[in-house]
Amino acid sequence: MKNKIKGKTYVVGDSIDTDVIIPARYLTTDKPAELAAHCMEDLDRDFRKKIKKGDIIVAGENFGCGSSREHAPIAIKASGISAVVAKSFARIFFRNAINIGLPVFVSEARNGTKTGDLIEINVSAGEIKNLSGKKTYKTQPFPAFLKKIISAGGLLKSLKK
Fold it and tell me: Deepest of 68, 78, 89, 93, by most Cβ within 10 A of its Cβ?
C-alpha cells in the first residue's frame, strides 16, 4: 500500500447507505466492472462521468449503513475511487472495505472540504491534507496488518502471500 494517497474529492452527505452506493436491482452480479457501472447512480446519475481514477469520496456520518453486502465497497473500488474518508462508517461496511482492499479513513475532513478539492492522505502519519483548502485533519494511522491486507488487494489475497 502506498504511504500517500492523493486525489480529487467527491463530497457526499450523511447516511449514504449501501442501496445508494449500489442499488439492489444490480445485485444479480458480483462482477466488479458491472457493479462500478452503477455505483452511486441513484445519488448522482453522472457519478461515473464526474470521477476519475484515484479520486476520493469524502462523506459525513454513517457511510455505508444498510445491508452487509460486499457489493458496495466492490462497486466503489472498481469505479476507480482510491479511498473513502468519512466522519463515521457503518461497522460492517468498514470491515467489508478492508476485506476487499479499499482504504477507509475516519476523519472530520468533510467539514471544510468541497467536491473537486485536492487532498492527500498520509497513511502512516494519520493525516489528511486538503491541499486546495489548506487544512489538515487527523485520522487513525493504519497498523501494519491492515496495510498488508489492503496492499494485497483484500483479505483473501493477503492470506495467499
Answer: 93
